[in-house]
Amino acid sequence: MSATTATTTRAPKEPRNGVNTPVLLATINAVKETPALGKFQFRATNRWVDGTYSESRVESFSGAGGEHVHQSDFRYAADHPAVLVGQDRGPTPIEFLLHGLAACITAGIGNIAAVRGVTLTSVESRVEGDIDLAGILGLSSTVRNGYERIRISFTIAGDAPPEKLREIVEQSRARSAVFDVLTNGVPVDVTVNTR
Amino acid sequence: MSATTATTTRAPKEPRNGVNTPVLLATINAVKETPALGKFQFRATNRWVDGTYSESRVESFSGAGGEHVHQSDFRYAADHPAVLVGQDRGPTPIEFLLHGLAACITAGIGNIAAVRGVTLTSVESRVEGDIDLAGILGLSSTVRNGYERIRISFTIAGDAPPEKLREIVEQSRARSAVFDVLTNGVPVDVTVNTR
User: Fold this and answer.
1) Average pLDDT of span B89-116
2) How close B1 gets to chain A, by Cα (Å)?
3) What is the ipTM of this complex?
4) DSSP element (H, E) containing B123
């Protein structure tokens, strides 16, 4: 039995895992036909409050040929913990990268499983990042500022053999936007205005 | 007047900007004397709910020679927006990178200004990331999956000349953990368990 036959048998074009698979496939086709629809810009604004504490808002983005406003007022705090002389009113900024990584690969797992006709029962992950603060504290010229290594471990269950479940995770990793940015880096331009 | 004189005049070792400057400087000295204290591990766990929606918890970390639990139960959702066939129950995972970047450089600005004896009145930033979804949708072999470019713009005000305020932002950028990870990348290990 070929993979194609197996896929067809499992009705990949029906909604599954909470994914509207027909709409997902139609969206991919729309971007294929009109590449400009795939150009997105995501945004956040941040406001310093005091010490190491600040708050961000994630309100709008552009893409699919237009401007969009998120349906909720997404606000996030960040701070340093007490051992780093903050007040722990939010996670440290770098902890949000771990959430982004786990959530990105997990979202892809949901979509890819649906397209492949696999019904998932659970996807859990744990992500860890090692960092030596000698970098950001300016105590070493050889220790980097950021994470030295990140590890993410998935535990996945669904109505497919282990090998097929592993392939879904691997395909999601291979197409993850956050995984790409974290592993390959991205140019960041910083500008400063004073008032 | 040298920079050192100016700094001394402005009593850098007193708390300022909500930063306990003496404790911050003592912490840096402690890590300098005992480098093992600077080794940290940050963590998150994530649980898929349905579709592209998942939730992360940021609960504990190790560092400064011990284990620590955040004082609050930090939970974050992520989803895809409707135009990407999600339900917009949270920002997209990659939007959290923008929050992390802004918050990281901003936290450093608060600390560095305090050490330099500068009282800040406001720090605001706007961050944007450009992404072409032809990558993650598998429609192109040349378009990358992640952001092609990120721009962050700070507007800062305080009791120092514009040039000194700019230097504070630049020093924070140069020592930012998130800026380092986003621009230089980090190795990410992915493991998969099935059940």
Assistant:
1) 98
2) 23
3) 0.94
4) strand B120-132
